[in-house]
Design a protein that fits this description.
InterPro entries: Adenine_glyco, DNA-3mA_glycosylase, DNA_glycosylase. The chain has about 200 residues and is mostly helical. It has eleven helices and two strands. The chain has a single domain, classed as Orthogonal Bundle (Endonuclease III, domain 1), CATH 1.10.340. A hairpin with a 5-residue loop joins strand 1 and strand 2.
């Protein structure tokens, strides 16, 4: 099966970006581009947790609602959430109202504070798990990797929730630790260039 699709501009892209209208911009401007901002990394880990059992489109179309509901994923602010905030979020129809997942974000914010205090930043810790190119499977043929398994295991050891190996692998794809655009995708070279100019934190 052809892994690419031809866009309205005549350029080849990963086939998955034609599955929903919201995917094209996300594919072209975000997915795979390296990220070192702690807030964005925490947001993506949180949203990947919310995606568990759901589609990414469900989460993506609600992303701005999530950002508003969770104070733009400010780690310190979320770590201070109280029962009042939990009740507020459970009543928010703009997000996924799953108690376990909401509680996990609050819990994980507290674990993130501990990690940042210990490691200097969430990014410095996360980017230690960037895989060597030789260890990667062919683009979009894997749902986990040795590195996602290792990162998942370490996060769980530190007490994080909803960070299984598949969730972590999707996070690594999205945040640029892996360039998983297929070989013929026109965005792959842009991501590769961004990765070459990226200075890993830490």
């Amino acid at each position: 099966m052809n892994a690419t699709t031809v866009g309205h501009d005549g350029k080849l892209r990963c086939r998955w970006c034609e599955a929903a209208p919201e995917f094209l911009h996300y594919h072209d401007t975000e997915w795979g581009f390296p990220v070192s901002d702690d807030r964005r990394l925490f947001e993506k880990l949180s949203l990947e947790g919310f995606q568990s059992g759901l589609s990414w489109r469900t989460i993506l179309v609600k992303r701005e609602n999530f950002r508003a509901a969770f104070h733009h994923f400010d780690i310190d602010q979320i770590a201070r959430y109280t029962e009042h905030d939990l009740d507020r979020l459970l009543e928010d129809k703009g997000i996924v109202r799953h108690r376990g997942k909401i509680e996990a974000v609050i819990h994980n914010a507290q674990r993130a504070q501990e990690l940042i205090k210990r490691e200097g930043s969430l990014a410095a810790f996360i980017w230690r798990y960037e895989p060597d190119r030789s260890q990667l499977a062919k683009p979009q043929t894997a749902s986990t990797s040795a590195q996602s398994i290792a990162l998942s295991k370490e996060l769980k050891k530190q007490g994080w929730k909803f960070v299984g190996p598949t969730t972590v692998y999707a996070f690594m794809q999205a945040m640029g630790l892996i360039n998983d655009h297929v070989e013929d995708c026109s965005i792959r070279i842009k991501v590769e260039t961004a990765r070459q100019h990226f200075q890993p934190p830490g």
